[in-house]
Specification:
Elements (H helix, E strand, L loop, with lengths): L5 H10 L2 H5 L6 E3 L2 E4 L11 E4 L4 E4 L5 E2 L1 H9 L3 H12 L13 H21 L5 H9 L4 H6 L3 E3 L5 H8 L4 H6 L3 E4 L2 E4 L4 E7 L5 E7 L9 E3 L15 H11 L2 E4 L2 H9 L5 E3 L7 H10 L3 E3 L5 H16 L4 E3 L8 H8 L1 H9 L2 E2 H10 L7 H14 L5 H15 L3 H8 L23 H15 L3 H8 L6 H17 L4 H8 L3 H13 L7 H29 L3 H24 L1
Parallel strand pairs: 12-13, 12-14, 14-15
Antiparallel strand pairs: 1-2, 2-3, 3-4, 4-5, 6-9, 7-8, 9-10, 10-11, 15-16
């Protein structure tokens, strides 16, 4: 996973103060020994996340998320573990260079290679004599050389077999070119899918080219845009255009601007507004919503000002707010889209429009006012009824604030409005059960005890000897493997603490997953040796009881009298041991 020593990572973690770093993301308030704040990993309304300065760990007692400072930064910013380590290193002032090896899907590697090679061909075409007019068009659109290089913009030559010939000479098969939507197959011949168009590469979330958009530039009587078909590596519903470029700026700006078209995103990005992504169509998919959820920042909708853009704004706004994603809206007057607005009015006016974005609920209220003469009684009544209908399914606080605004703005008795919507009897809509708020209850007593024992072993060196003396065995192989790793760690460092052991566990997927499960399951605030010994005794009793049951089953299934007697004696001996153990307790 990494080319950096564990000692270096531990040096960074030991210098980092988890309370200080987490408080840069969310407000924390001291209560007793620990600090508490609103958990950012579920829909939290009361401070349920505890941060321990002493142990350098955080834990939410509602969604059970927990870990060290690297875990928090990784999950909050939706970045890799090593990216989180680097970010923390920068905060504490420790130089940190690393190489992270990207996992490669060998099965699809050749497809990515083909798309990358095709991208380079298109780029070369744009700088050839055949691409002169296309380049001039881009210059007229104020898309300079720097932007062209950043977005790898190219040109498809006006020749129906040019790309096909170059790629097949390189050794790529017609079947693969057809599969990737670069050539259309006609028997044994292939014809380019993109001809005489400006080419804009489409990348996946990791920045790999997976498709292309081809745009006309000579005013031809043809569709303005032609997009790659969906392929084995390109599913447009899983992608947001420019995401790989924008993700770091989105975290920095703490917001993401969503636009409709590639050219809108390119124009904004090249004008210095880099926290922008574009839809691959006007419909928002579940997969794209999941991307926004992970970003945990407000989404600013800036869609086209035509009817389709208006409908898309309403549909997408409803979907985002339903999934509890904060949503704002910018409506651009005097231009059909962000690209045209910037060219027409300039970047200062555009930034001003962004700064005056309104939340989605207020936007919906403003839409209800449009084309209404509110000095006309009939139209005013219609407007107010529409507002009351809009807030029907909102919470009581939103209803209360909206009714008071209506009362003050239009001089209508508040009690009449309240009666109209029947606020006293109204109740908030039935909430969908949030599984993240369900506390983990382990019905398996053995598992509960084993997880608690393992938590103790990872937290302090003094518990390992007690474990070996009083138990020394856990039922599951993964648990025994974790004990072996803990033993190795202690022998290597002569100490152990959970915050550092989490770093060690990152190098092994199985160990890491088990450690994370333990952290998310166990709620231990203070280590107590007597309680630890109690867990060991409970496990010992459970294992002996299971052993007796296994012997009973053997007796009942056996037809050999001697074997039955032998198993019966073993059963009696086991029961005697259990009774002696109970007397000790």
């Amino acid at each position: 996973m990494q080319l950096i020593s564990e000692d270096k990572i531990n040096e960074i973690r030991n210098k980092a103060d988890i309370v200080s770093i987490i408080s840069d993301y969310i407000p924390l308030k001291m209560q007793g020994k620990n600090y508490f704040g609103i958990c950012p990993f579920h829909d939290d309304h009361t401070p349920s996340m505890s941060v321990s300065k002493e142990r350098q760990l955080f834990k939410c007692f509602v969604c059970n998320k927990g870990g060290n400072v690297f875990t928090f930064v990784k999950d909050y910013e939706n970045i890799t573990y090593l990216e989180a380590v680097k970010k923390v290193a920068n905060i504490v002032g420790i130089p940190f260079l690393y190489t992270e090896t990207k996992k490669v899907n060998n099965e699809n590697k050749k497809y990515y290679d083909i798309m990358e090679f095709a991208t380079k061909i298109f780029q070369n075409n744009l700088n050839s004599k055949e691409g002169k007019k296309a380049k001039e068009y881009l210059e007229q659109r104020q898309i300079n050389e720097e932007v062209i290089k950043e977005f790898k913009i190219g040109y498809a030559i006006d020749n129906h077999t040019y790309l096909y010939n170059v790629l097949t000479k390189k050794g790529y098969s017609l079947n693969d070119l057809d599969l990737l939507g670069l050539a259309n197959k006609n028997g044994l011949e292939g014809y380019d899918a993109f001809v005489n168009r400006i080419i804009i590469p489409i990348t996946n979330l990791d920045g790999e080219v997976v498709g292309f958009t081809g745009r006309i530039f000579n005013g031809e009587s043809a569709p303005k845009y032609v997009n790659s078909k969906e392929t084995i590596i390109y599913k447009k519903g899983n992608i947001l255009f420019n995401y790989s470029n924008a993700k770091n700026y989105i975290r920095e700006k703490k917001s993401v601007i969503l636009v409709e078209g590639n050219m809108d995103a390119i124009r904004m990005y090249s004008s210095g507004i880099k926290n922008v992504v574009a839809l691959m169509g006007t419909a928002l998919t579940k997969e794209q919503i999941d991307i926004f959820k992970k970003l945990r920042v407000p989404v600013i909708l800036m869609l086209d000002s035509d009817k389709a853009g208006f409908i898309a704004t309403n549909n997408i706004g409803d979907m985002l707010t339903k999934d509890k994603i904060e949503c704002k809206v910018v409506r651009l007057n005097g231009a059909k889209d962000p690209d045209e607005y910037i060219v027409k009015f300039g970047i200062e006016a555009f930034n001003n429009a962004i700064n005056h974005s309104i939340n989605y609920f207020d936007y919906k209220l403003s839409v209800l006012k449009e084309n209404k003469n509110l000095n006309n009684t009939e139209e005013l009544v219609s407007y107010i009824k529409n507002v009351l209908k809009l807030i029907e399914n909102e919470d009581n606080l939103t209803k209360e604030i909206t009714l008071k605004k209506l009362s003050n703005e239009y001089n209508i008795d508040y009690e009449i409005l309240k009666k109209e919507i029947n606020l006293e009897k109204s109740s908030p809509p039935e909430k969908v059960k949030d599984k993240s708020k369900e506390k983990i209850i382990i019905k398996d007593k053995y598992k509960m005890c084993a997880y608690n024992v393992l938590y103790y072993l990872m937290s302090d060196v003094k518990y390992l000897d007690t474990y070996y003396k009083k138990l020394g065995f856990l039922k599951k192989e993964e648990e025994r493997n974790l004990v072996t790793e803990i033993d190795y760690y202690i022998k290597k460092y002569n100490t152990i603490c959970l915050a550092d052991f989490l770093t060690y566990a990152e190098s092994d997927d199985k160990i890491r997953n088990l450690v994370n499960n333990i952290i998310e399951t166990v709620n231990i605030q203070t280590l107590d040796e007597e309680i630890f010994i109690g867990y060991l005794k409970a496990i010992d009793a459970i294992l002996k009881k299971e052993n007796i049951k296994a012997i009973k089953d053997k007796i009942s299934m056996s037809t050999d009298i001697n074997e039955q007697i032998e198993n019966l004696n073993r059963q009696i001996a086991m029961k005697k041991i259990m009774l002696e153990g109970k007397k000790e307790v």
